[in-house]
Specification:
By secondary structure, the chain is mostly helical. It has 3 domains: 79 residues, no CATH class; 45 residues, no CATH class; 59 residues, no CATH class. It is built from 6 helices and no strands. The chain is elongated and about 60 Å long. It starts with a helix and ends in a 35-residue tail after the last helix. The protein binds heme C (4 copies). The site of one heme C has 25 residues, from helix 3.
Length: 204
């Protein structure tokens, strides 16, 4: 991120100064740019500032980022960070199913696009006011939802590892809208209901 930013600043600082000196900066431009910031956006622009500004008036970005948001004179495309388009950070095919669609994206593309200081953190531990830590849902760390390696080990007919986990830690981390459901009733395209294998059992 920073090399591109540095290049952009170096390249566009003179141009922006020219624009400002020529009186071309309109009111909106002044509100998203700061004279003190050396030709960059105002402090706090990422991620909160730009989200609020874009949500309020996304057309105001086109002057510099291009009518199709592919960079324009700023040479910074919204899709430099966003995987979808200028409004969607995730690939458009995910829709409301990010929890179910992200594993296949990662198996194809790895975590390069997620692991940075603006999105989910350089070490995938999350970014304040932006993407959560991967471990906020996963109990096995960024790349594994479970802390045991084999869940469906039907070759032995036993699944001892999850019973041990639940015995020690309870079901708090299984119970939510993206894993096994708030009442362990299962989630579409994600974790099965516990009752699939434990009919009639109520877990605490
Ligand atoms: C007056 C021109 C101008 C306008 C208007 C403008 N930008 Fe920018 N933008 C730039 C330039 C130049 C850069 C590269 C320098 C920098 O990083 O600040 C940039 C960089 C960015 C970055 C990357 C910042 C970083 O630190 O990597 C984001 C995000 C961004 N703009 C979003 C927006 C959004 C959203 C809007 C509309 C609400 C907008 N910009 C309006 C010129 C503009
Ligand atoms: C330097 C990286 C970066 C660039 C460049 C960037 N964004 Fe973002 N944008 C983010 C991040 C990170 C988020 C997610 C923040 C969050 O979810 O809280 C985001 C979120 C958004 C959102 C809210 C999306 C949602 O799902 O709620 C909008 C709108 C937005 N950006 C507009 C823009 C526009 C328009 C541009 C180009 C002019 C742009 N962004 C360029 C990093 C960037
Ligand atoms: C909102 C909760 C949530 C967040 C945040 C989240 N995941 Fe996931 N992740 C899931 C769920 C649920 C599954 C299982 C989906 C399924 O069964 O197909 C999963 C599965 C995966 C898998 C497949 C591996 C496995 O053990 O099944 C990978 C890889 C993965 N996630 C990577 C990531 C990364 C990297 C991040 C952070 C950038 C992340 N996830 C953030 C909920 C989340
Ligand atoms: C795919 C089938 C399957 C699913 C789904 C499943 N379990 Fe199990 N579970 C088993 C099997 C088989 C055992 C017995 C393993 C053993 O005896 O070591 C077991 C054992 C347990 C035990 C040990 C106590 C007991 O009743 O034997 C607990 C606690 C447990 N599971 C909790 C859960 C919870 C909570 C869920 C849902 C989040 C769940 N299981 C989902 C198959 C499953």
């Amino acid at each position: 991120m920073s090399p591109i930013r540095t290049v952009a600043q170096r390249t566009w600082l003179p141009m922006l100064l020219v624009l400002v000196l020529a009186g071309c900066g309109d009111k909106n431009t002044q509100s998203v740019f700061s004279a003190d910031s050396g030709g960059a956006h105002v402090a706090g622009w990422l991620p909160g500032g730009h989200m609020a500004a874009a949500t309020a008036n996304i057309d105001s970005c086109t002057e510099c980022h291009g009518g199709d948001f592919s960079g324009g004179i700023s040479k910074v495309a919204c899709t430099k960070c966003h995987l979808g388009n200028q409004q969607d950070v995730h690939p458009l095919t995910w829709g409301d199913l990010a929890y179910a669609r992200h594993p296949s994206y990662i198996s194809q593309n790895g975590t390069t696009a997620c692991a940075n200081i603006y999105c989910h953190g350089a070490n995938l531990t999350g970014v304040a006011s932006s993407g959560p830590s991967c471990s906020s849902c996963h109990i096995g760390g960024p790349s594994a939802v479970h802390s045991w390696t084999v869940f469906n080990d039907f070759s032995t007919g036993r699944l001892p590892r999850h019973s041990q986990y639940v015995g020690n830690s309870g079901t708090a981390s299984c119970r939510n809208a993206v894993c096994h459901g708030a009442n362990l009733q299962g989630v579409t395209l994600s974790g099965p209901p516990c009752s699939e294998c434990h009919p009639g059992v109520t877990f605490q």
